[in-house]
Amino acid sequence: MRLPSILLLLGLASASQADIICNGQINGVFTDRLGRVMTYATFRNDWVQVCNVTAAWKNVPIDVCKTWVATLTTLRVTQEPVAMYYSDYPNGTSCLSIPTYEQAPSPHYISINVP
Questions:
Q1: Which CATH number applies to 17-112?
Q2: How far apart are CA 59 and CA 86, in angstroms?
Q3: Distance (Å, rounded) from C-alpha 89 to C-alpha 87?
């Protein structure tokens, strides 16, 4: 009796996390004086922090952040579609409910989508 209950709980725990990919356009990018890099994407319609160019932020190294700044700037100028992948996010979360500004989770990756 105890083993099935434990297995059920483990199944519920693993089902409570999901990966989400948010697709849209980048309408803005800024870096503040603390090095926080924010982007305004149409999938969220608000500003979300993606990294920091002066210190590692939520496991995103500075070198990766600088690359992302270049990618996001390119996406803003060209208006090519973006995909931002978030891993281990609560199941059922939509891109519109991602927290804003520095409360946002760090993306696992940022890519330029091929239309």
A1: 2.40.50.340
A2: 13
A3: 6
Q: How many angstroms separate the CA atoms of 51 and 35, rounded?
A: 8
* Beta sheet of 82-90, edge-to-edge order: 17-24, 82-90, 109-112
Q: Which residues contact 9 (CB under 8 A, 6 or more apart)?
A: none
Nearest 10 degrees: CA dihedral of 75, 42, 32, 63? Answer: -50
pTM, 2 dp: 0.81
CA dihedral 29, 99, 80, 73 (to 10 degrees): 20
Per-residue pLDDT of 29-73, as tens digits, reads: 999 999 999 999 999 999 999 999 999 999 999 999 999 999 999
Residue type, 106: S
**Residue 64: what residue type?**
V
Q: Where are the domains of the chain?
A: 17-112
Pairing relation of β-strands 82-90 and 109-112? Answer: antiparallel
Spatial separation of the C-alpha atoms in residues 46 and 97, rounded to whole Å? 10
Q: How is residue 31 written in tokens?
A: 């870096």
